[in-house]
Specification:
Blueprint lengths: L13 E2 L7 E7 L2 E8 L2 E6 L13 E3 L2 E3 L6 E3 L5 E3 L8 E7 L2 E8 L14 E4 L3 H12 L6 E5 L9 H4 L1 H4 L12 H6 L3 E4 L3 E5 L4 E4 L2 E4 L2 E4 L3 E3 L12 E3 L3 H10 L5 E5 L3 H12 L3 E6 L6 H4 L1 H13 L3 E4 L2 E4 L3 E4 L4 E3 L2 E4 L3 E3 L2 H5 L13 E2 L11 E3 L4 E4 L6 E2 L4 H15 L11 E6 L2 E7 L4 E9 L4 E8 L4 E6 L2 H12 L1
Helix pairs in contact: 1-10
GO molecular function: 2 iron, 2 sulfur cluster binding; metal ion binding; oxidoreductase activity, acting on NAD(P)H
InterPro entries: FAD-oxidoreductase/Apoptosis (IPR050446), FAD/NAD-bd_sf (IPR036188), FAD/NAD-binding_dom (IPR023753), FAD/NAD-linked_Rdtase_dimer_sf (IPR016156), Rieske_2Fe-2S (IPR017941), Rieske_2Fe-2S_sf (IPR036922)
Cofactor: FAD
Length: about 500
Amino acid sequence: MAEKDKGPDFAKGIASAELAIGAMMRGTVGEAPVILVRSEAGLRAFSAKCTHLGAMLDTGLLAHGEIRCPWHHARFSADTGEAVAAPAFAPLSCYRVEERDGQIVVGEKISAQPPQLERRLPERIVILGAGAAGFACAHELAKRGAGAHVTLIDQERDAPYDRTFCSKQYLAGKKDRPGVAMAEAEFLRESGVTLRSGEQVLSIDAEAKTLSLKSGTLPYDALVIATGAAPKRADTSGFERENVYVLRSLADADAIIAQAREGRTALVVGSSFIGLEAAASLRARKVEVHVVAPGDIPLRKVLGADVGRMVRALHEENGVRFHQGNVHSYDGRTAVLEDGIRLDVDFVVLGLGVAPRVDLASAAGLELASDEEGGGIRVDSNLRTSAPGIFAAGDVANLPARAGQGRQRIEHWVHAQRQGQHVARVLLGHSEPFEDVPFFWSAHFGTSLRYVGHAEEIAEAEMDGSTSDKNFALRLTDNRGGQAIVTCKRDKAALEAEADWER
C-alpha cells in the first residue's frame, strides 16, 4: 500500500466529526490497515481486508448492519466483525476503540466472542457433498460449536476445495494446487467434523433414515443433499476420446493442465462462463484457442448483446478465435465443424453447461422439479425437501423464485454457499425463509464482471456507462418479474442494488 493511501494513524486519533453515521474510513494501527465503522451498532474498528481474498472493505458498502466486500460480496457484522455470509468464513479482527472529547482513538486488538451454540439441534447431521453448499453448511455448524454432530461426505478425494479456481487462477497457472484447498478445512476437523473424502454413497433410505455407503451403513437424523451438478457431454462423434475434457473438478483441471503446453492448440466447445474462463486461462498458458458455439454473441442470454460483444472482443484481442455453429466430429486430432471447416486441435474442452445430480434423491423418492422449472430437487423456502429431515442446497436445489413467479435453480458458487449456511441455521432453530439475492462474478483477461439478481430472458436493458470503456452498470429485467444488474468497474453499484433488492 502506497504511503499516501494508508490513511490516518488511528492510534494517534482523528476528530469525531470526520466519521459520520453510516460511514467507513480506512487508516492504520501500527502497520496494519484498519477500518473505522460507525453504524447502528455504534463505533467499531476492524481489520480492513476481506478475509476471503483481501479486498479493502472501505471501498465496499455498509448496509443493513453489515460491512460488504466490493469484490465477491462477502458480509461481516458491523457489530462484531463475524463473517455472516460467504464467500468469507473467517471473521475480521477487532480493535479497541474509544471516543471522547471529540476524538476517536483506536487501540490494540481485542478478542471477539465466538458465536454461541443454539441447542436445538439434530444429534447426527450428514452432509452429502463438500462443495460450496456442503462445506458452508458444515462450517456454519462447526462455528456454532456443533461440529461433533456433523459428518461431511464427498466422493472426490481432493474435497473440499474452491471450485471457482479450477477455471480461473489454477487453470491459468496463477495459483498452485495446495492454494485451491479451502483454507478453513482444518478448522472443520479441529471442531469435531468428521470429513470423509473419497467416499461413495450408494443410496438413501428416507424412511429408515440411513445411507448405504461402499464402506457400510450410516444413520442420520438430518440429511443435507449438496451433491451439486455434473458437466454435460454431447453425443458428438469422437467426444468420448481421452483428449476430450470437461471442467468441473480439480482432477478435470489437472488433466487439462497436463495437456496445456505452449505451442499446443485447444478447442473449447460452448461459450458458457466456464468455457470462456477456460479459454482465457489456456491463453495465459500460451495455448492457441478456438471457441465454437451456436451463437455469434457469447453469453447474450445472460448478459445481453452489448456486454456479450464486449466479452467476445476481449477474447479476440487476446488471440481467441471464434467459430459459429457446432462440431460435427472429432478424430482425436482434427475437429470438423458443421460448415465443413477443419481445425487441427490437440485437445478439446467442453463448456456445455451442467445438470443437477439427482440420482440419489430420485431413487429415494424425493420430489423433483420439472425440466420446465429448471430441474433439481424441489425444496421449500427453507430448503426442506419432500422427505422429513432431508434438505437440499446448492446447484441441486430448486427453490421458489425470490422475485416474480414460479421456481428456479441457480448455479452460482456464492449463492450455493449461502444456501448451505441457511440450512445450518434452520437446523439450529431459525425459521426465516432463504431470500438471498443471487450473485456471481466472472473474470476475462483482467476484466471482471459482477452479476447481481436473476433475469431469465431479458426483456429490457438499461445501460449506464459504456462497454467500450469497460465501465458500466447494466440493469436487466425479464417478463416474469426478475431483475439483475451487470457491472464492470462499478462495484459499489452492484452492492447497492443487492442491498436495495433485499428490502
